[in-house]
Design a protein that fits this description.
Elements (H helix, E strand, L loop, with lengths): L16 H20 L3 E2 L5 E3 L9 H6 L2 E4 L5 E4 L4 H10 L8 E5 L2 E3 L11 E10 L4 H17 L7 E7 H10 L4 H13 L5 H12 L3 H13 L2 H11 L5 E3 L13 E7 L9 E5 L3 H4 L7 E7 H10 L12 E5 L4 H16 L4 E4 L5 H10 L4 E5 L2 H5 L3 E5 L4 E5 L1 H10 L2
Parallel strand pairs: 1-5, 8-9, 13-14, 13-15
Antiparallel strand pairs: 2-4, 3-4, 5-7, 6-7, 7-12, 8-10, 10-11, 11-12, 15-16, 16-17
Bound molecules: histidyl-adenosine monophosphate (HAM).
Length: 419
């Protein structure tokens, strides 16, 4: 067999138990915090019809980054590249039955055909928290408060991350006032999006090419918008509500066409983790592009990849805990002993101790090595069924290899008490 067959597909990850443990932890913290803010959990399939995305989200994502294929019935299908169109579709479909404002969250895996690099993969898990039927700044600030709380729940401090805000409507107003044609406006947004990745000279040169004589007026209007008006109001209101790690940044534009107003992205203050940790904003017109009445809506996405890097940088990753607390080692190939081990394992499980049995009958040392490899903290060595009849057996604590002769009840106490 070729060696490559053992490799996972390019840009996706295998999750061995240690990695799955971290992903589960990330998902659990995200879920618990969303629920603390009153968000309801929902789910959907990874498969969606391609029409759901065309001309509604982002040309780059749809045309260059979406996994798209024809199914056996000739329909065009995608592996979802994001969750927003899916949740909008679901809400649109049951609109009359649902109560608004509606707070929804999900942590789906999403797929993008990107060049795999640090912080960017072809499959990631992304928390999506959205509020449908929510008008005004109060919801926007609360959404950011949720993001902040998630960071705190991971053990981060305020100075570890920076929330950058901007507004699509402010940008649109500037384009309108300067009569910038739609295509040039789109190119300007794309250029602003790349601002941090290119040199100042390159930015200036491209902007001149796009906006010609309006360039200086555009830059002046941007500066003005940052210093006063709508964005200044946001900043003041954030501060009044005790959220201080927020700045206005006109290079935050978000890559999707559906945003209509307030937008934001969150960054690690450590430059070693340069990719956005989270991004979102208001998208009041996505429902309209699905042929529905518009609904004021806002939300964000937060990916597991950059969050994991964020935690890793600060030593915030949880220490692995194996599922099994106890391994019963059967030391002889004896059916009666195996039956006794089975019974004993059932008793431990009923006492709520996660118990695995090693029926291999391999040598004591070999089985101890296995337990060590699996990071299982306790083992019981069963050599002879008589021990059990006497209600006495040997429990070994693997961290210091100490042996304890114990009855069943005291073994349960010993193992549980170590938590
Ligand atoms: P997005 O900015 O494309 O937004 O993704 C949100 C977050 O997902 C990013 O900040 C990043 O943490 C993570 N992410 C995105 N692409 C990748 C990738 N290729 N590899 C690893 N992580 C990635 C959206 O998708 C919007 N639909 C979010 C939203 C929800 N807006 C409103 N509601």
């Amino acid at each position: 067999m070729k060696k490559e067959i053992l490799e996972s597909y390019k840009g996706v990850r295998d999750f061995y138990p240690q990695d799955q443990f971290v992903l589960d932890y990330i998902r659990r913290v995200m879920s618990e915090t969303c629920e603390l803010f009153g968000f309801e959990h929902y789910g959907a399939s990874v498969l969606e019809s391609a029409d759901l995305y065309r001309n509604k989200t982002s040309d780059e994502i749809v045309n260059e980054q979406t996994y798209i294929f024809e199914d056996r019935g000739g329909r065009e299908v995608v592996l979802r590249p994001e969750m927003t169109p899916t949740v909008a579709r679901m809400v649109a479909k049951k609109r009359r039955e649902l109560g608004f404002p509606l707070r929804l969250y999900s942590i789906p895996n999403v797929f993008r055909y990107e060049r795999p690099q640090k912080g960017r993969l072809r499959e990631h898990w992304q928390l999506n928290a959205d509020i449908f039927g929510a008008e005004g700044m109060d919801y926007e600030i609360e959404l950011v408060a949720l993001v902040r709380e998630i960071f705190f729940a991971f053990g981060a401090k305020e100075e570890d991350f920076l929330i950058k805000i901007n507004s699509r409507s402010v940008l649109d107003k500037i384009f309108n006032e300067l009569e910038v044609p739609p295509l040039a406006a789109k190119s300007t947004l794309a250029l602003l999006d790349r601002k941090a990745k290119i040199s100042e000279e390159d930015f200036d040169e491209h902007l001149t090419r796009i906006l010609a004589n309006e360039k200086d007026a555009f830059l002046a209007a941007l500066k003005h918008a940052e210093a006063e008006g709508e964005l200044k109001n946001y900043l003041d209101e954030f501060k009044l509500r005790g959220i201080n790690n927020v700045v206005v940044d006109s290079s935050v534009v978000r890559g999707f066409d559906y945003y209509t107003g307030f937008i934001f992205e969150v960054f690690d203050t450590d430059k070693a983790n340069p990719r956005a940790l989270c991004g979102g904003g208001r998208y009041d017109n996505l429902m309209k592009s699905l042929g529905q009445e518009p609904v004021p809506t806002l939300g964000f996405g937060m990916g597991d990849v950059t969050i994991r890097d964020f935690m890793d940088l600060r030593g915030l990753l949880p220490e692995y805990e194996p599922a099994s607390k106890l391994m019963i080692m059967v030391l002889q190939d004896d059916p009666e002993l195996k039956r006794a081990a089975f019974d004993l394992s059932e008793r431990f499980r009923r006492a709520n101790i996660e118990t695995a049995v090693n029926y291999s009958a391999r040598k004591f040392d070999k089985q101890i090595k296995t337990a060590d490899k699996l990071s299982i903290p306790y083992v019981v060595a069963l050599e002879d069924k008589c021990d059990l009849d006497k209600d006495e057996f040997t429990l070994i604590k693997l961290s210091d290899k100490t042996k304890h002769k114990l009855s069943f009840d005291s073994a349960v106490f010993f193992v549980t008490d170590s938590d």
